[in-house]
Structures are given as C-alpha cells and as structure tokens.
Design goal:
6 copies of one chain form a homohexamer. Chain A has helices at about 5-10, 15-25, 70-80, 100-110, 125-130, 185-205, 220-235, and strands at about 35, 45-55, 85-90, 95-100, 115, 120, 135, 150-155, 155-160, 160-165, 170, 175-180. By secondary structure, chain A is an alpha/beta fold. The first copy, chain A, has 2 domains: about 30-180, Ribonuclease E inhibitor RraA/RraA-like (Glucose Oxidase, domain 1); about 185-235, no CATH class. In chain A, a hairpin with a 4-residue loop joins strand 11 and strand 12. At the B-C interface, helix 2 and helix 6 of B face helix 3 and helix 4 of C.
Chain lengths: ~240, ~240, ~240, ~240, ~240, ~240
C-alpha cells in the first residue's frame, strides 16, 4: 500500500469503497451486522492482523488459560503492529465476549489502529469511550472462555461473512467495516477519492434543488461540465 | 384523509395507534424490526408511495443500470409526491442498501415526508443528520444492486411483515412505524387523540402517586370524573 | 443478601460478575440480547420479581382483559416490592410489547429498582427518559395482548436464555443484565469488588504504558506487589 | 369433551381444524416448526398434560437430579394420564433433548396418547420406531440437563408459539399439531367432520376433471346439489 | 426455449446447472431452503408462472375472500398453463400455508409441471403422494389467509432469495430448484448435458479406483482421451 | 485410541456418549443442526481429519481454482486417511455446497470412514445412496466456490458450534455426530458400553411394564440386582 493511500482511505466512506469493489466484481467485502461500539466521526484504516476463535471446550478454557503468555488472544494484543487493525473471527457469535476494555486499552496504548469482531465486546460502554475505533455486533459480558477458544494468529479468517487475509486493508466508518484486498488498495483508494469528489458535488447540487436525473450518475454533458467547474472552484 | 387528520396523527404515538387498530381486529400493522436512523422527536406522517425490490440477478444489476432514467429506484425518488412517504419492500434483507444519502437528500428537497425500508440505508450516519425522517433495520454500505433489483412502483408490497397498499397512511415515531389502512385513518386519528388525552392524564396521576388500578383502564367512575375535570383544566 | 452487598453490586460491572460466576461453574447467567432502553451510567440492583407470559390466544386477550384487577401484568406493577426488579419472560419475542411507559412510570413511583424483559417495550423513548433502569431487546409498539398473555407472578421463568428464580439477584449495567443465584450474592459481590480493584489498577498501569503480560492476569510477584502499594495509596 | 369427539378428531386433518378455528377468530393455534419424529399415517388426539422447562443452571442440573423421584420430567412420565398427550415447553430450543427413548417407551406402555416438544428428542430414530406418536423440532442428543431444567407440571405453557392450557385438546397428523381450546373441541370436531366430507367430495370431483371455480368454496347451487347426492351415495 | 431443451433439462442435476450458471456470472439462482415435499426421482422442468403474496391484513382475508372467482391464488390454479410451473413468493414465511392438496391436485389435473413456494404447503403428506412435483420449506397447516394475501399473477417475484421473472425456466431435482433466465435456457441445457456426460464418466472412473487428481477437473490429456473413448463406447 | 475402542463406539448411541461427556464437564460436544444425509442404521466412527472454509472472495474462487492440485478441498479428498472422518468447517452456511457426490464417492473408495459438514452437500440424494455415512445441514446445489473458499487442512476448526481438533474421535449415529477429545476416547467408550448395557436392560424392563421410578436411574438395590442377573443371562 502506498503511503498516500492511507490518507485517501481516511476520507472516503465504506459505501463508496463498496461500490468501487463492486465494479471489480467483488460484491461481498462489507462485514455484515457489525457496527461501531460508538461512532467516532472519523475513519479507521489499517492492515488486518487476524485472530481466530473456535468454539470453546470447557477443559481447555478455564481461567488459568490466561496465565499462559502464549494465549493467542493475549499475544494478539501485545504483538498486533501499531497502525494495524486487530480483527477477530468469533463465528458471528456474540453470546460471549471477544475481548474487554483492558485489552482494548492496551491496543490503543500500543498504537493499534482499531479492533473488529463479529462477536461482541464486554465493558462495551467503556470501550466506546476510548479513542481507538472498535466494531462489534453487540455488547457481551461473559468472558470469551465461555464460548470462544483463541486458536490462531495471522491466518486467513472469516469475519461477518467476509474472508479476511492478513494484510488486507480494513476501512471502517460510522456505518460499517470493509475488507479491501491488499493488491487493490491503491487503485481503489484513488478511485474512491474521485468518486467522493463527484458525490460531494452531487450533494451540493441536490441541496441547491437539482434533480438527480442526468446528474447521478452523470448521463449528460452538462453534469460533467458543471463538475469540472466545481472541482476547479473547490480545489478537488 | 381529512386535512385535520394529518395534524392529529402528528401528536399521537405509534403505540396508541396500534391499540386503536387492535380494537378493530387489525393486529399486525406495526412494521417489525425497523427503527429510526436517528430519532427526530417528532412524528412522520404521510400516505405510502411504494417501491418494491426483488432479489438481484447479476447481469441485470450492473452499475450501468442506474443510467436508465426509468430505473424504478431513481424514478421513485423523483416522483414520490411531496408529503408522501417512500416505503420500500427490501424483503427484510439489510445485507445491501435500499438507498443512500444522495437519494434521501433529494427526497427531502422535494418535500417528501419520510422514507422507510425493511432493509438498510448506506451513508446512514449522514441520513441521520438530515431533516427528513428515515427508518430502516440497520446501516448497510453495499449498493442496492448487490442484492436488490428495483422492480415496481406503486404496487402493494410487504414491509417488515406488514402488507402496505399505496395510499395507506404511515405514521412513525421514535420507536417504530405503523400502517393505517386509508379508509380508517380519520376515525383512528380521532380515537387516538382521545386515547392520548386520557393517557396524558393517567401519566400525570401516576406521577402524582396514584395506583393504576381503576385508572388504567378506567374501571371506576372517579377516574372518569377526574379525567373530565382534567380535560377542562387543560383544554383537551 | 447482606445489606452491604447491594452497595457492592452497585459498583461492579456485569462482566466482572460473569467471570466470578464462571469460576463457580455457572457459565450462562448473563441475559442474552437484552440491553438498556437508555444507558443510565449506574447499575441496577435488586431481587427478581417475576412475571411470565405465554403466547396469547385471541379470545382471552381482548382489551377488556385489562379491566380485570387481577390481570397478572397489572398486578405485577402494583405488587412488585420496592427495591425489587420486575423481570418478564416474554419468550424472547419482541413483536409485541411487554409493557409501556405508564406501567413503567408507576413502577418507578413505587420504588421498584428496575424492569427487564426479553421482549420489547412500547413508548420506549419515553421509558428511556425515566429514572428507573429498563432493559429490553428493542422497542415494540403493539400492545402485549397481541402476542403475550400474562399468566403467572413469582414463579421460575426463563429470560434471554437464563433461568430466573424469584429472589435471584439481578444486576444490570450499561451493557447487560446478569442473574446471580440468591445464595451466591454475598460471596460473589465480595469477590467482584476485589476483582474490580485489581482491574482498576490494571487499567491505570496499562494507561501508563505497561504490557498486560504478567499483569493481567498477575503471573509475577512484581504485579501483585505493585497492586498492594496501589491499594494502600488509593484506599481500596 | 364428548366421547364421540375423540373419534371425530381422529378422522380430520390439522389443516381442516386450523380453518375451523380461524373462523372463530383463533389464528395461531397450530404449533410452529414441530413435526412428527416419524409420520404414523394416523392422528394423535388427547388432552394436554403440560411440562415446562426453563433454562438450566449448572449447579441444579447435575445427573444426580434424576435420582429425585419428584424430578418434574420423570414425574410427568409416570403421572401423565393414559389417553392424554404430554406436551413440553422447551422454549423452542432443540440444542438439548426434551426426552429420550426410555421415557417415551414408558409413556407408550402407560397408554399415553402422544408426546410433543418444541425442542428435540434424543434417540429420535428409536422413538420413531415406537407406536406412540411423537412430535419435535429435530433430533437432539444431549441430555436435557445440559440446557433445560424441568420446573413445573400442569401449568399453562407456550409450545411452538402457541399458548397451551392443561386440558386443551391436541390433535396431530403427519404435518403438524394443533391446540383446540377445551370448550371448543366438540363443536370444532363436528364442523371439521362436515368440512372433511365436503373436501373429500371436492377431491373426487377435481380428480374427475372439475374446475375448483364454484366448487371450492361452493358458490353455485350445482356444487351443493352434487355434494348432497355424493353424501347419500357415500353414506357421509 | 427450444423443444429439445426440455428433454435435456430433465436429465441433468440442479448442481450441474448451478455450475453452468456460475460460469456465466450468475451465482445466486438456486432457491434457498426449499425442498421436495417428497422426492420424485425425476426432474421438474417448466417455465415460471408467478403468484405473489403480501402479508395479510385481517379485514381483507376472511374466508369469504375465496368466494371471489378472481382471488389470485384460485385464479393461478385455474390459469397456470399446462407444462408451466406455478411458483409463489411467500416471503420465506412458512407459518401459514401457500396452498393445500385440493389446489395442487387441480394443478396436476390441468397438466401443470410443478408447484414451488418458499413457504409451506398444508396437507403436505397428501401432496407428497401426488404425481406432480411440489417444493416448499416445510409443512404448514394454517390457511394462507392467516398470514398471506394473494395479490398478483405473472409479475416478477422473489422466491427463496432468487429473483424470478415469468417465463424463466425452473428445474427441480430431489435436492432443490434452480431458476434459469429464459434467454440462457438453451445454451445452459446444452452445456449441462455435456458436463453431465463428463461427470458420469468421472463417477465410473472413481468407482473403478481412479484418483480425482487430473480427472476432475480434467487437467491432463489422458483424462480427456479416456473420456472420448468412453463417449463412443456409451453413445454419449 | 485403543483398537477395541472403535468397536465399542460402533455400538453405542451419540446420546449415551453425550451423557458420558456431560459427566466429565463437557456439555457442548454434540454438533448442532447437522443430520445424516440418509440414516444408515449403523454408526460412523473415526478420528477427525479437518478442512476449513472461509467466505469466498470472487477473484480467488473461479472454476479454474479446482485445476490447482493443491486446492485444499481436493487435497483433503485425496489425503484424508482411510478410517478417518473428513470434517468441514463451513461456518454453518448451507447456501453453497461443501462437497458433492464425486468427491464423496472418492472418499468412500479410499476407505474414509465418513464425511461431515455444518453446511450442505450437493447431489445429496446420490450421496445418500452411497455406503459412506455423510452428515450435513441440508442439501445445497451451488458449487462451494460460490460462498466457501477451502483454506486449510488439519487445523483446529469449529463445526456446528463444537471445537474440533484433528484426531478427535467422531461418532455419528442416525440422530447426530459427537466430538470426543482424543484422550478421553477409551474411557468414554468403556463407560458408554456399560451405560448401554444398563439402558438396554431398562428398555426391556419398561417394555415389560415396569415404572422408571427407582429404575432409571437406579436408586434402589432391586434394580441393580435385577440388572446383574440380566447381564449374566444376556452375556453383557
């Protein structure tokens, strides 16, 4: 990913990115039924660092399991690189937590860019107050040991019905999170910035009373000409 | 619908309307699992203007489909009458969007009274900031083409397990949306205003320490007499 | 329950309590998929007073049913002891309401500590504005008669996949509600207070840049020694 | 219930009974998502004897619980009257069993008319081989203690979204089970026998090539006249 | 559709057709969660004749509705062309029936090729005994009036998450039903016959002990050469 | 696993094994909502050989993917050891197939003991006719590429809400499949054989008219004494 791509992805919506991927034949990259613990009004962007859970077997998931320094969940929290996003495959099961506020605070302190699960967070209200963006299905108070066994770091996973490979670029906004295959990140970011410029122009036009016909999408020359003028006027 | 009915429906809750319809044998008119994108603190009222989606077939739902000026979704946005509510049958599937913020902004500019889907909106955070009331199941970033093909305007539809006929009166509050058959709107509005007066009286009484026994519902004369005094005192 | 237990339970999170119960082999005491109507920023604590619904049969659930002073829902509202929590088994069905704002206002006036359902409340926005904590699955406008028949007070029930016996201690925070068997309340409260002290210490350490390794859980003596100092310094 | 009613209910379908109840305003008496363990080709008929489960708490549901002669599940099996149907409220949760083949064999030996749960049976294949009709959602091998605590006999319950009172008349065929309020059993049985006669006549007519128009339902005199002749000819 | 296409489609599996459509970018044409009422051991093939239901409003769906000769369900049964398949959009709701045995018998008598719903049939056991192939989600005894209002014939519908246009070619086998866009039926039938020949050859080879490597799919010349010999030997 | 353990596990039911594991604190080892494609009347027993799917990304899952000899699904079919059971984590998603009849035929030819998925099989009717036991959720015709990407062999997986480690012992009967941790297989098999002897004795007693009280479980000496006699008489 080029360095300027990160900045571009900070400025575009997941909806716009979903359309850019749709054009490339990728129709299912938006993580389903996962939302911000608390909307932040800014994007989350970073490469995926993955953690996978399987259903917990009771004998392997007593509290003592956390005393093992190699417990994959705890190791994930201490090794996820700054700037990356820790994303967890909780098999869409929010009946027990994927993590809690202490671990998410540690992630924030370590400079991790965000945290995502298709399960739920415990201490969700406190997590919502942190700076770090966090996404889940719903609050879930029981410890992850109850139903989830952390099993693997940095393998391919599923999250909210999307396949995620380590290094895929994750972008979250106040609506949801999308998974951009690593090799497409630069071109999709470029295209999304262009699309966003046009959409911002369209919103202005619509707010000024214009019809969307011919404007969105642009099917007449007048729309495109007006857009060119707008770009110059607005430095976009 | 009589002109004063609109004003009456602006002042009553969906819960009260649900009970008024229940008395008439209509038990299932509240749209299920649909909520405000952002609560507005005021009602949405208007006749239904319907749009129906069917599951999308890939070859018919490429981005170019939107270039067709007769695409039913786009046509809905430009033809839904001011004061009406655009309501969409998305087959209770929020995995792809029913519409996004540009279209909803256009609806607002055109004076449409509200927009409802049993799917989800993309750019939901922006839609929540608009004036126009919008109701959905949850935010959904993928373009509607991914899963939904807009197929028909102004036919009868299902929305959130309720049958909706064009012209039915929709009322939404901060909890949910209800569908009032057109021919019942006037009488139901009248009755709901009466019920609301009594409920407001009851709330005051309960806040003053009264038991609900005999009061809600009124099974003794004292309750009804006190209510008559309250009505006079409060001009209700 | 000892009198000081109430105060202790006001200060600990449901997540911490869930772990304390997990240690005792109770893995499923957190009510699933139930959330605050509006987060209160303080806990709800009290013994369970139960109300059970069964699916409604139409002939037994006309509006006139509420005129019966022995209707179990209305009786629950007038007899639930101050300080107790009214908890309802709505069979996880939020398609019709479990109660509305008038009844919940009455509960508040009577000094009831909170109200919980695994269904939904009507007039949910108004209930959210009350002082009394209320927990449900989602707003639901139709009267309970539509789908729920109130059938029994003070029997054992299920709520959100948890078995609840009258007198069990319910604790709710801004995430969820947990059910503590009555005979465990004192010891679990004690332990949770201890756990919370350690967790608060850990959060401070993590915010100061410490790794969680060895600290959470404490697997080296340094962590425990630092904690002892912190306790003295903070009077915990 | 009159003695001849049982015989009548043995000869009519659940579908016909559902329509007879629908005429009386009872729209929801068919137990949802429950099917024969193995179709028997004959009806199950009998008054309901109810057993209610709540979610299991681990400490109360160790194997030793079954050593208690008053364990409600075991007591149900030994006290359900011959000719009655044991019906269980398993909260629509088939993840653990409601009962197994030994208990169902005992029910058969005792002359019980059938057994119904909205959960699942263990040893389902063996239960299917028994004479006694059994209905469930799907096979489920884990012992009921895993998730279900038997809590009460002979109270009102819910089963598959239907309210069931002890003594209600249950009728099952190869499709599903319906709950007839006790006071309606005689008249509904009479009406269903009449309806069945007409339906059998219609099937013969349709097999002979007749259109359903005017015949089903009968809207012309010819249909009714032909039916009268058919009744005489067939002794119905 | 060419006349020989029907015969070809009678001989290929839905799985093979799904792959042929997948090659053309159509990934979602198999109707989900719908199965034969009783497997027939032969295919159902025919163009779609559509019937759409919306959620029923009680006042419009009393039993008298069936006395109307233009009731869309009854009209569908009398007008669906011989050789076509009647397919119903029941919004994936099997809680009330889509049709029963009398109507399905009439469809059979009229030479209709099959009947499909994403809801359920009443009298399902009897429908299973008929010659005509029928597909549904599960048996459902309540009359359709309970939850479904028949609203439209021969419009585009959704069925089991697939968009269906009148005239699309439906093929059902003992597993499921697939929807082939009309303009693709001939070429997909041709390709599926070819694929089936190869698959039959592969099964023989595998049964003779061959590995699938290089054989399925054929990635070496030997496999293709052996297949050519097999075709000649077997007249395929 | 001792060699005689296999034979023991062939003779006991999944229900009995579930209880034996329940006694050891393992409450969730039965795979949920997975059933035989066709009941075989005999058990499936073998160590787990695992295959994991993640949600498919379109560009990586074109038909050409199968030409890769290292495609994990195809490799699984050629490398799963004779006597083992191939078990697949399909994330409980039966909307696309986990495998089809050609691959399952190859597994049978190679001496594999069975095949399990928490998704669905295509060509399910043909798979049901094979000798090899196969378990799934429901038939599913679309190729796995549509929604599933085969990603890993022989790692830990989840299947039907159970954690499965390679080498765990799988036992399936006509009801369902259970996962026995490898180190418990011998002792659980021994115990289950003992339990089965007692259960067989109980069934005989119950069929002879005995009450279950005191007999199941045995709480009086008479039951145990009678059992000892029965064992001698029956050589158990």
């Amino acid at each position: 990913m080029k360095t300027e791509t990160h900045g571009k992805l900070m400025q575009v919506s997941v909806a716009t990115l979903a359309t850019a991927l749709f054009k490339r034949g990728l129709r299912g990259q938006t993580i389903q039924d996962v939302r911000p613990v608390k909307p932040k009004g800014r994007n989350m962007v970073g490469p995926a660092f993955t953690l996978r859970y399987i259903p917990a077997r009771e004998d392997l998931n007593q509290l003592a399991a956390f005393r093992n320094p190699d417990h994959p969940q705890r190791k994930a929290v201490e090794t996820c690189p700054p700037g990356s996003v820790l994303i967890m495959d909780s098999r869409k099961d929010p009946r027990a937590a994927s993590a809690g506020d202490i671990l998410v605070t540690r992630l924030q302190m370590r400079g991790v860019a965000g945290v995502v699960t298709d399960g739920g967070f415990r201490d969700a209200m406190r997590i919502g107050e942190l700076e770090i963006p966090a996404y889940h299905n719903r609050p879930s108070s029981p410890t992850n040991l109850t139903l989830h066994q952390a099993i693997e770091l940095e393998g391919p996973i599923g999250c909210g019905d999307v396949g995620v490979f380590p290094g895929d670029i994750l972008v979250g906004d106040d609506d949801s999170v999308i998974v951009i295959p690593q090799h497409l990140a630069d071109e999709v970011a470029d295209e999304a910035v262009e699309m966003t410029a046009y959409e911002d122009f369209v919103v202005e036009e619509v707010r000024a009373g214009k019809s969307i016909t011919g404007l969105y999408p642009p099917t007449n020359d007048a729309s495109l000409a007006a857009f060119e003028l707008w770009r110059k006027a607005n430095g976009r």
